[in-house]
């Protein structure tokens, strides 16, 4: 069984994910996190390169949907600007949001990948839902004790994950 704390793959950022390579391995849709994956927290504009990357993903025939734990007031305008469907208040790491997102794209979890920047929400949720899991580095460090705690707890897990490779 796969380790629930480990992503399938890591990238420095979303623009380093190759949509055509995902499509070639049978992935037909991607569930996208927002904060620190597509843009920084509370930023209404996508990070540099994200618009071009979304076009590349669409060009590779991939369906796309946003799944965020953030509120609809935050997620809806952002998703609307990018022309993406969305699920807000996603309650990650519970798998329900991931499964709803798959259903929305009319895909099974096996045909779906998820991209996000946090182990304790994105990675665990993707694992529980059975979708292919890509973890990206957060675009920028977050303020606040809760985020600092989560990042601190991620560090030894990611170190162990990196040591484990190559299998
Ligand atoms: Mg995030």
TrEMBL record:
Classification via Pfam families:
Hydrolase
InterPro entries, alphabetized:
HAD-like_sf, HAD-SF_hydro_IIIA, HAD_sf, PGPP1/Gep4
Protein name according to UniProt: YqeG family HAD IIIA-type phosphatase
Q: What species is this protein from?
A: Yanshouia hominis
